[in-house]
């Protein structure tokens, strides 16, 4: 019996480590930080958020900065992969708040439709364009993703952007950023991605 316990003990310990690590990974809360940079030193980014709070974000090893460039709704074609934030409209349909055109290499990123926090009742839909329609009333996209389909109208003036490169040097005080972060139980924030406003194009998401 003692021999069995000696064998089982390391296995049990290893199992508990795996379970605790998995639990910790799932326990991390996703926080989307939006605001302006106050400072950036080493691996620490300090942001004054749109809510008026100060967020201290530790950037993980291998983190990447990126920016955005203006695009046109006329550039969107069937087969493109896009990310569209939308809200319900008065007629019961969906109206876009912003559209991000992903490069082909990022097709499938975050695919699906889920609650978003850009505005109350907003939704993010990352999906493939099945149909792009232009009419006298504007534009609309039919988006398909695993398990669903959504038609979203795009009004004139809606921000349309695509990804663009950035460097650490672009993380200047006063620059607008969007930083998807993970919040630990102790409140600390970490992130591996920073989208920074550049050349007059600010992150609309």
Fold and architecture overview:
13% of the residues lie in helices and 52% in strands. With 205 residues, it is mainly β. It has one domain (29-205). Residues 1-26 have low confidence and may be disordered.
Entry summary:
By secondary structure, the chain is mainly beta. Helices cover 13% and strands 52% of the residues. The protein has one helix and twelve strands, in the order H-E-E-E-E-E-E-E-E-E-E-E-E.
Termini separation (Å)? 60 Å
Number of strands: 12
- The helix fraction, in percent, is 10-25%
- One letter per element, helices H and strands E, the order comes to HEEEEEEEEEEEE
Contiguous low-pLDDT stretches (5 residues minimum) are 1-26
């Amino acid at each position: 019996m003692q021999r069995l316990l000696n064998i089982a003990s390391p296995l049990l310990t290893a199992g508990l480590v795996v379970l605790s690590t998995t639990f910790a990974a799932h326990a991390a809360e996703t926080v989307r930080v939006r605001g302006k940079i106050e400072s950036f030193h080493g691996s620490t980014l300090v942001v004054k958020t749109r809510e008026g709070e100060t967020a201290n974000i530790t950037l993980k090893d291998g983190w990447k900065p990126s920016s955005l460039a203006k695009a046109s709704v006329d550039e969107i074609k069937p087969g493109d992969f896009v990310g569209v934030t939308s809200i319900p409209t008065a007629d019961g349909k969906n109206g876009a708040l912003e559209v991000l055109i992903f490069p082909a290499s990022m097709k499938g990123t975050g695919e699906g439709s889920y609650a978003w926090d850009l505005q109350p009742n907003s939704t993010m839909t990352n999906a493939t364009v099945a149909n792009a329609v232009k009419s006298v009333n504007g534009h609309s996209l039919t988006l398909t993703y695993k398990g669903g389909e959504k038609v979203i109208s795009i009004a004139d003036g809606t921000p349309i952007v695509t990804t663009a490169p950035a460097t650490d040097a672009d993380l200047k005080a006063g620059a607008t950023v969007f930083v998807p972060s993970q919040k630990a139980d102790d409140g600390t924030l970490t992130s591996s991605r920073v989208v920074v406003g550049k050349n007059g194009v600010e992150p609309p998401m």
